[in-house]
Specification:
The complex is a heterotrimer of chains A (238), B (294) and C (317). Chain B has 294 residues and is mainly α. Chain B is built from 11 helices and 2 strands; from the N terminus they run H-H-H-H-E-E-H-H-H-H-H-H-H. Chain B has one domain (10-119, 126-281): Orthogonal Bundle (ABC transporter involved in vitamin B12 uptake, BtuC), CATH 1.10.3470. Helix content of chain B is 72%, strand content 3%. Chain C has a single domain (28-316), classed as ABC transporter involved in vitamin B12 uptake, BtuC. Chain C is 78% helix and 1% strand. Chain C contains 15 helices and 2 strands. The longest helix of chain C has 27 residues, at 199-225. In chain C, 55% of the residues are buried. The chains are: A alpha/beta (238), B mainly alpha (294), C mainly alpha (317). Chain B binds chain C through residues 38, 86, 89-90, 93-97, 99-101, 103-108, 110-112, 114-115, 119, 219, 223, 227, 230-231, 234, 263, 265-266, 268-269, 272-273, 275-276, 279-280, 283, 293-294, and chain C through 52, 99-100, 102-107, 109-111, 113-115, 117-118, 121-122, 124-125, 236-237, 240, 244, 247, 275-281, 283-288, 291-292, 295.
C-alpha cells in the first residue's frame, strides 16, 4: 500500500521570506501526523502548499498513487483532500445545513442524498440541532465544528485539520479529541496542525516540528517533546 | 513632408486632449487612493461643471472660466455632503457597494439635469474658440492650449498641496495606510470628506475647461467621461496623481493616433481596448509600482 | 420549493388575466415581463455567482438583432434566429468570461462596461453586420398558426412564456447542486475550492446561462420594437437598468428581480408624465435607498429576517 500522502522538498517563498524551506513529510493510510511549531513557523503555509492553495516554488506532492503537484486545489479536493481553514470561513449567508450541503454535493449530486449526507455529518459534529440557523450567527466553537463537518462531507481520504482545537474550552476540547480519534479509527488518514500539546500527544503517531520554515525534528510525540532543539525553538520565540 | 506635418499635428492634439483627460483622471485617482471607492459619478460632476459654465454664460454672459468662482466652492460642498450622506455609511461594505452607490448618484445627477435643462446638447461659444496658434504648419487650438495650461496649473497646485501642506500630508498618509494614519491622530473620516470634495472640484474645473470644446448632454456625456477617467487612471496606475497625468496623455495619444491612422469611427474603442489589455495583463498600470490589488 | 412553485403558478395566472384587466396597457406588461426575465437572468451571474455585470445590454442587442436581421435579410423565423442568438451569446460570454474572470469585484464590473461599449461601437459602425447607426426595420414576420407576431398581444404571451421560463430555471437552480456551487463561489472562492468546486468553470457556466437567457428576451424585445437602433439596444443605460432591477429587488433571491421589475417599470410609468424621459431618476434614488437601508435588496432583506425568525421559532418550540 502506498503512502496516503508523500510530500518531498516543499519550498514556498513570499517575496524574500522563505516560509517553508525544503520540507518533506509522509503520512500512512489511517495514520495521524501532527505538525507543530511556534507561531509563524510555516505550518499553515506547508498545509496550503500540500492542499494546493499556495503555489510551491519547488517540491512534489503525491496523493496515494497520483502526482498532484501541479493540480489546482479543487482537483485535490475532488481526489480526496478534505481541509479546514485556520480562520474558519463559513458561507455566512447560507444556513448551517446548506454550508455542509455544498461539500456533500461533491460526491452526491442528487439533492436528497446530499442532504442526507450533510445531516449525518452535522450529527457527527453535534450541530444537527442548528441545521437551519444562518452560519454567520454561530459562535467560535460551533464554527470550528462546522468547518470539520464541511471537510468531512466531501468524503475525504485524508483530512487536513488546521488548529481545530484552538480556543476551545476543556470539555469542548475533550469532545474534539474524541471525535478526531473516532475518525481515525474509521480509517481516515489525518494531518493535523495544532498548538495544543495535549491533543498532539494523545492523538498523533508521528510528529513533525517546524521552526522558521525548516523541519527541525520528527519522531513519536515522546521523542519530539524531549528533544532539546525543539524545546529551544519554542522557548526562543515565545 | 505633409505626413510629418500631420503627424506633428496629431501629436500636439493628442497631447492637449490628453491634458484634459488627465485633469478628469486626477480627481478620480485621488478619491480612489484615499477611499478605495470607484466613483461612478465622476463624469457627471464634470458635466455639472459644464452646465454651471453654460448657465452663467447664458444669464450673465460670463466667460466659462469666470464661473469657476461658483463651481469650485459648489463642487467642494456637494462632494463633502455626498461623502457624508452616502459614502461614509458604507465604507466597510464590499467595494462593489460604493460603485453601485455612485452609479445611483450618477443617475440622479444626469436625470436631474435632464429634467431642468431638457435633452438637447449645450455648449458655450467663446470668441477664442476658432483661434489657433501656428507653429510652422502645425496649428494648435487656443482653447486646448488654455485647457492644457489650466491642467498644468491645477496639477501643479495639487502637487504642492499634497507635498507641502499638513493637510496634503494627511491625505497621503491616509492613502498609504489608513490605520497607521489613524494611529498618528489623523481624522481619516474628515480627510475622506475633504478628498471627495477636492475630487469634485477638480471634476468641475475640467467641465468648465471642456465646455467650449465639447457638447454637454445630460445623461449621455457623464458616463462616457467617467469611463474615460477610469481608462486614464488604470492606464497610469491606480491611486497616484502623477500616474493619472501620464495615463491621460497616453489616452489622448491613443485616441488621436487611432482615429487618424486606423479608423476614426472607433476613436472611443481604442482607449477601451487598451484599458482592457492593461487591466488584464498589467493591472498595476503602465507606470505603476505594483500595488496591492483590492 | 412548493412555495416557489405556487408562486410561479400565481405569476402565470396573473400574467394570463392581465390582458383582460388592462387591455390598453399591454406594452407596460411586456416591458415588466421582459425586465423580470432579464433581471432574473442577470441575477444568475450578478446575484447567485456574485459577479456584477454592467454589460448585459450586449446580449439583449444580440437577441434583437438576430431576430431583425434574420427576418429582413434571410426571411428567417424568429425561433430559428433566437436559437442562433442563444448560441452566439453563449460563445461570446464564454470568451468574455475566460478573459475577465480573473478580475474581481469592481474591476470585473468595469471590464464588462468596457467590453459592452466596444460591442456597441461595433454595432454602430459595422453597417454590413447590423445596418449601422441608422437602424433596422423589421418588415416581415412569419404567421405561425395564423398568429400575427407584430401584434402586441402575441408579443405579450411570448414575454410571459419567457419570464415564467426564466423564473422556473432559477427555481430549479436554487435547489440544485449548481445553485449551491454558485453561492459558494460568491461567498468565498477558497472555501468553494476546498469543497471541490472549480470557481472559474462555475462562473463561466453562470455567465453562459445568463447571457443566453438574456438574448432570448432580447429577441422578443426586437419584435416589440420592430425598429432597432444599435446605440439604444447595446447601451450602457440598458445594462444599468437590468442590473439595478435585480439589485433593488434583491440579488441572489428567486423573487427579487421580478419584484424589482414590477416596481421599477410601473414607477417609471406612473412618473412618465412628470419626469418624461428622466425616469431613470427613480432607479438612482431607489438604488441609494436600497444600499443605505436594505443592503440585500427588498426580497433579500425579507428572506434574511424570515430565516432568522423561522430558526428562532423552531429552536424555542
Ligand atoms: N500570504 C502571505 N504573504 C506573505 N507572507 C506570508 C503569507 N502567508 C504567510 N506568510 C508568512 O510566512 C510565514 C509562515 O506563516 P504561517 O502562517 O505558515 O505560519 P504558522 O506556522 O501557520 O503560524 P501560526 O501558528 O501563527 O498559525 C510567516 O512569516 C508569515 O508572515
Ligand atoms: Mg497557521
Amino acid at each position: 500500500m502506498p503512502d496516503a500522502l508523500k510530500a518531498e522538498g516543499i519550498t514556498v517563498r513570499f517575496g524574500g521570506v522563505v516560509a517553508v524551506d525544503n520540507v518533506s513529510l509522509s503520512l500512512q493510510p489511517k495514520g495521524i501526523l501532527g505538525l507543530i511549531g511556534p507561531n509563524g513557523a510555516g505550518k499553515t503555509t506547508l498545509f496550503n502548499a500540500v492542499t494546493g492553495f499556495v503555489p510551491m516554488d519547488s517540491g512534489k506532492v503525491r496523493f496515494f498513487d497520483r502526482d498532484v503537484s501541479s493540480e489546482p486545489p479543487y482537483k485535490r479536493a475532488q481526489a480526496g483532500m478534505g481541509r479546514t481553514f485556520q480562520t474558519e470561513r463559513p458561507f455566512e449567508e447560507l444556513t448551517v445545513l446548506e454550508n455542509v450541503l455544498v461539500s456533500a454535493f461533491l460526491k452526491e449530486p442528487r439533492r436528497k442524498d446530499a442532504e442526507k449526507l450533510a445531516m449525518e455529518m452535522l450529527k457527527r459534529v453535534e450541530l444537527d440541532d442548528r441545521y437551519d440557523q444562518p452560519a454567520g450567527d454561530l459562535n467560535l466553537a460551533r464554527r470550528r465544528r462546522l468547518e470539520l463537518a464541511k471537510a468531512l462531507a466531501i468524503q475525504p481520504r485524508v483530512l487536513f485539520l488546521d488548529e481545530v482545537m484552538a480556543g476551545l474550552n476543556p470539555p469542548a476540547l475533550r469532545e474534539m479529541i474524541g471525535l478526531v480519534r473516532r475518525l481515525s479509527q474509521e480509517g481516515l488518514a489525518i494531518l493535523m496542525v495544532e498548538h495544543i500539546m495535549e491533543a498532539i500527544i494523545e492523538l498523533s503517531d508521528h510528529v513533525i516540528v517546524l521552526a522558521s520554515g525548516q523541519k527541525i525534528a520528527e519522531g513519536t510525540p515522546q521523542e519530539v517533546t524531549s528533544n532539546t532543539q525543539v524545546i529551544e525553538a519554542y522557548l526562543g520565540t515565545e | 513632408m505633409a505626413e510629418l506635418v500631420s503627424l506633428l499635428q496629431n501629436l500636439s492634439n493628442g497631447l492637449l486632449i490628453g491634458g484634459v483627460y488627465a485633469m478628469i483622471g486626477v480627481g478620480l485617482t485621488l478619491i480612489f487612493g484615499v477611499m478605495r471607492t470607484i466613483n461612478f459619478a465622476h463624469g457627471d460632476f464634470v458635466v455639472m461643471g459644464m452646465y454651471t459654465a453654460f448657465v452663467f454664460n447664458m444669464i450673465l454672459g460670463w466667460d466659462p472660466y469666470f464661473s469657476l468662482l461658483v463651481a469650485l466652492p459648489a463642487g467642494f460642498l456637494m462632494g463633502v455632503l455626498l461623502e457624508r450622506v452616502v459614502l461614509a455609511p458604507i465604507v466597510d461594505k464590499p467595494h462593489e457597494t460604493s460603485l453601485l452607490a455612485t452609479l445611483g448618484i450618477s443617475l440622479i445627477i444626469g436625470n436631474a439635469l435632464l429634467l431642468i435643462f431638457g435633452g438637447e446638447s449645450k455648449s458655450v461659444h467663446v470668441d477664442y474658440a476658432s483661434m489657433a496658434l501656428s507653429l510652422g504648419e502645425v496649428k494648435i487650438s487656443v482653447i486646448l492650449l488654455i485647457a492644457g495650461g489650466v491642467t498644468a496649473l491645477v496639477i501643479g497646485g495639487l502637487y504642492l498641496l499634497l507635498h507641502y501642506t499638513e493637510f496634503g500630508r494627511s491625505i497621503r498618509a491616509t492613502a498609504e495606510n489608513r490605520l497607521g494614519a489613524e494611529l498618528v491622530g489623523i481624522n481619516t473620516r474628515r480627510i475622506q470628506g475633504a478628498v471627495f470634495g477636492l475630487g469634485m472640484m477638480l471634476a468641475m474645473t475640467a467641465g468648465v475647461a471642456l465646455i467650449p470644446l465639447l457638447f454637454a448632454t445630460p445623461t449621455a456625456t457623464g458616463p462616457i467621461l467617467t469611463l474615460k477617467a477610469f481608462v486614464v487612471i488604470v492606464l497610469g496606475g491606480l491611486g497616484r496623481v502623477g500616474a493619472a497625468v501620464a495615463g491621460g496623455l497616453v489616452l489622448g495619444m491613443v485616441e488621436v493616433m487611432g482615429a487618424a491612422y486606423i479608423a476614426s469611427a472607433y476613436r472611443d474603442a481604442y482607449g477601451l481596448l487598451f484599458f482592457l489589455i492593461i487591466l488584464l495583463f498589467k493591472p498595476e498600470g503602465l507606470f505603476g509600482r505594483s500595488v496591492k490589488r483590492v | 420549493m412548493i412555495r416557489h412553485l405556487i408562486g410561479l403558478l400565481v405569476l402565470l395566472v396573473a400574467g394570463l388575466v392581465y390582458p383582460w384587466i388592462f387591455p390598453s396597457a399591454l406594452t407596460v406588461g411586456v416591458t415588466i415581463l421582459l425586465f423580470a426575465g432579464w433581471a432574473t437572468a442577470w441575477d444568475i451571474l450578478g446575484g447567485w455567482a456574485g459577479q456584477v455585470s454592467l454589460g448585459h445590454a450586449s446580449f439583449v442587442g444580440i437577441g434583437a438583432y438576430f431576430v431583425a436581421i434574420g427576418a429582413t435579410e434571410y426571411a428567417l423565423a424568429p425561433w430559428w434566429s433566437i436559437l442562433m442568438a442563444i448560441a452566439v451569446a453563449a460563445l461570446l460570454s464564454l470568451a468574455w468570461g475566460r478573459l475577465t474572470f480573473k478580475l474581481h469585484g469592481p474591476y470585473f464590473t468595469l471590464s464588462t462596461i468596457a467590453i459592452a461599449e466596444i460591442l456597441r461601437l461595433i454595432a454602430i459602425n459595422e453597417d454590413w453586420l447590423t445596418g449601422g447607426a441608422t437602424g433596422v426595420f423589421i418588415d416581415w414576420m412569419p404567421t405561425p398558426f395564423g398568429i400575427d407576431l407584430f401584434a402586441r398581444e402575441a408579443q405579450y404571451y411570448l414575454a410571459l412564456v419567457f419570464a415564467v421560463g426564466v423564473m422556473a430555471t432559477i427555481i430549479w437552480i436554487s435547489r440544485s447542486r449548481f445553485g449551491y456551487q454558485l453561492r459558494a463561489v460568491r461567498e468565498d472562492e477558497n472555501s468553494a475550492m476546498a469543497a471541490g468546486i472549480d470557481p472559474t468553470r462555475t462562473k463561466l457556466k453562470a455567465f453562459m446561462l445568463s447571457a443566453s437567457l438574456t438574448a432570448v428576451g432580447g429577441g422578443i424585445y426586437g419584435m416589440m420594437l420592430s425598429f432597432l437602433e444599435p446605440h439604444i439596444l447595446f447601451y450602457l443605460l440598458l445594462s444599468v437598468q437590468i442590473a439595478l432591477t435585480g439589485i433593488i429587488g434583491g440579488r441572489g433571491t428567486i423573487w427579487g428581480p421580478l419584484v424589482g421589475a414590477v416596481l421599477l417599470v410601473s414607477a417609471g410609468e406612473i412618473f412618465r408624465t412628470s419626469f418624461a424621459e428622466a425616469n431613470l431618476l427613480i432607479y438612482g434614488i431607489l438604488i441609494l435607498l436600497v444600499i443605505l437601508f436594505l443592503p440585500s435588496g427588498i426580497i433579500g432583506e425579507f428572506n434574511r429576517r424570515l430565516t432568522r425568525r423561522l430558526y428562532a421559532r423552531r429552536a424555542q418550540g
